[in-house]
Amino acid sequence: MAAIAQGALLAVQGFGALATQLSEDASISSGAMSVLQGNYGRYVTIPGVTVQPTATTASILAGITTARTLVAATVAEAEVAASDLSMTTATALVIAIVDLAEALRAAAPNPADQIRLMTALSDYYPTPPVSSATIGQTIAAVETETAAVCRRAALVSLARACSAYTPTSYDDAMSLRTQVADLIDAEMIVAADAGDNDAYASLRSLRTAVITDLTARGADLPKLVMVTTKIPIPALTLAYRLYGDATRCDDLMQRADPICPLWMPTSLVALSS
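^ that's the sequence the OP posted. Answer follows.
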């Protein structure tokens, strides 16, 4: 039992350390500001993000601080569950791991940041120490299996982040669909190699749900096209020329990231309509 607990604890500690590191990502704060009302520039305004009318800078920063505290608390809970399996059931450990992944997702108000964080968290593959002793092999096996539970919890949170994300184009939706499907595919192979039929079936259902959702929501979105001009022109002019709507210049600036919006690149990717 001690060897099993040690293997589980090693996996949870590594997973918790990664989650803590990701929760301190500076881009979470900047991305969170995208829910504020008003135009705060192309470095903050993010297409597809739902504005929160009552949000303020202070409330957003306070929420991020609270979320990071929650991540630290769930890390501690998971470590306690892993270190004393004689008193804590395996189900409680799984619940603690799922709560940890969800706590990290909640730390990022912006769904795009959630997807980035959950993608990184789902790539957790610890390297257990190699040992010829039976106890060492047991510890390594438990650590490997517990790490698999951690990755699968992250993939579930990633799927939830995808459902909250608003694709900006057909290409964006299809790219995200491929990205997430590939991650789930990799974990399905791990489950299949381990003979874990239940996990394989669950992951397959998760993959189907994500693909179906993103395919449906992306089907009617405009595709990306290459736009070229003979000379650099202002973003407002280009937006009106392409769409008959100068207010869509923000989207063009997000995609082209010009040095100055008065001189847009002569070649850039834009929405077809």
